Amino acid sequence: MLQVLCSVLKVAVLIPFRNRHEHLPIFFLHLIPMLQKQRLEFAFYVIEQTGTQPFNRAMLFNVGFKEAMKDGAWDCVIFHDVDHLPENDRNYYGCGEMPRHFAAKLDKYMYILPYNEFFGGVSGLTVEQFRKINGFPNAFWGWGGEDDDLWNRVHYAGYNVTRPEGDLGKYTSIPHHHRGEVQFLGRYKLLRYSKERQYIDGLNNLLYTPKILVDRLYTNISVNLMPELAPIEDY
Q1: Containing H/E element for 142?
Q2: Which residues pair with 12 in a beta bridge?
Q3: What are the residue ranges spanned by the domains of the chain?
Q4: DSSP 3-state assignment of 105?
Q5: What does each C-alpha distance from 171 to 101, 103, 114, 156 come to in angstroms?
Q6: What are the residues whose beta carbons fall under 8 Å from the beta carbon of 129, sequence distance 6 or more?
Q7: What CATH code would you report for 10-127+135-229?
Q8: What's the pTM value of the predicted model, to 2 decimals?
Q9: Signal sequence: where (predicted)?
Q10: d(Cα 23, Cα 49) in Å, to the nearest integer?
């Protein structure tokens, strides 16, 4: 696992993963020089979902957070899609008093914020902030909706979201298709009950059994996710 010393902040970068092996080398080739230039002490955690259930990006982030906490005290936790590459290495991967949305301008959206509550792609929170909001929701199976729920959690906890100024928040998306990934059709119903669900679905109701492999560049956390690992009342 690659770690860079003699720096200011300690940053854990969490990457949810399934069947994107061609993206990992591109991701590391892009991110490592940038984080080194920013003089950050950093480590990558690739959280890989096994099994046959629909992809659960949010639950993978929760698993990665819990595992990263076992490795030390982090100043900032970055929740990073593997197919998002920052175009400007001055987009500083540190956390502040408020949660940060780093990927404010994506090429696939013509570098325009799709909507004000958009919180997707790459975000960063301190350990205290992430624990206060009870992490991501675990109930979003398939793609779509979990970032909107995270936005709600952040605001219900009294935080505001900050973004990079100007062109600092520009990102390139590596082309891909949601291969074998289904869209989560129940997301709108869950989002209507974000506030009611926040403190019963998240870090505090998650059980899992990880398989961990420490590589030269990253820690790989394999986990077979199932709905019964994070039971919650059906809304």
Answers
A1: none
A2: 43, 77
A3: 10-127+135-229
A4: strand
A5: 12, 6, 14, 28
A6: 95, 99, 154, 157, 159
A7: 3.90.550.10
A8: 0.93
A9: none
A10: 16
